[in-house]
Specification:
Protein name: Glyoxalase/bleomycin resistance protein/dioxygenase
Helix content: 10-25%
Largest sheet: 5 strands, mixed
Pfam family, one: Glyoxalase
Order of helices and strands: EHEEEHEHEEEE
InterPro entries: Glyas_Bleomycin-R_OHBP_Dase (IPR029068), Glyas_Fos-R_dOase_dom (IPR004360), VOC_core (IPR037523)
GO molecular function: dioxygenase activity
Number of helices: 3
CATH topology: 2,3-Dihydroxybiphenyl 1,2-Dioxygenase, domain 1
Keywords: Dioxygenase, Oxidoreductase
Number of domains: 1
Radius of gyration: 15 Å
CATH architecture: Roll
Strand content: 35-45%
Length: about 120
């Protein structure tokens, strides 16, 4: 029986730059690192950064795409301001969605797109 999502893998052709981005700009801590792989432990889920060789056609298609990965925050406006000040590139300011929450998309140095999300208050 499946219990939970354990890990999400993302890929980069410039491993060091992308790793530095997640540590210095986003504030993630490294749980494990080896040659070409870095694991960030995030409250029950791992984000695994893997280096790929962009000269290989199969690998090139794995980098610089919408990931579908969302990071939750309780205060999207302040998180957006803090991450923007650290050099995180957002595609736009946080926007309130018709379902009551707010979202903003950002890219890592490899061009992978992530979502910052604030869920509406529970009644």
């Amino acid at each position: 029986m499946l219990n939970a999502i354990d890990a999400i893998r993302i890929f980069s052709g410039d491993f060091q730059e992308t790793k530095t981005f997640f540590v210095e700009a986003v504030g993630f801590e490294i749980g494990f690192e080896d040659e070409g792989v870095c694991v960030f432990d995030l409250a029950g889920t791992k984000l695994i950064l893997e280096e790929v060789d962009l000269s290989e056609p199969e690998a090139a298609g794995m980098v610089g795409r919408f990931t579908g990965v969302s990071f939750a925050t309780d205060d999207i406006k302040s998180t957006y301001k803090e991450l923007s000040a650290k050099g995180v590139h957002f595609e736009g300011k946080p926007e309130t969605e018709e379902w009551g929450g707010a979202m903003a998309h950002f890219k890592d140095p490899a061009g992978n797109v992530f979502t910052l999300v604030q869920y509406p208050p529970q009644n």
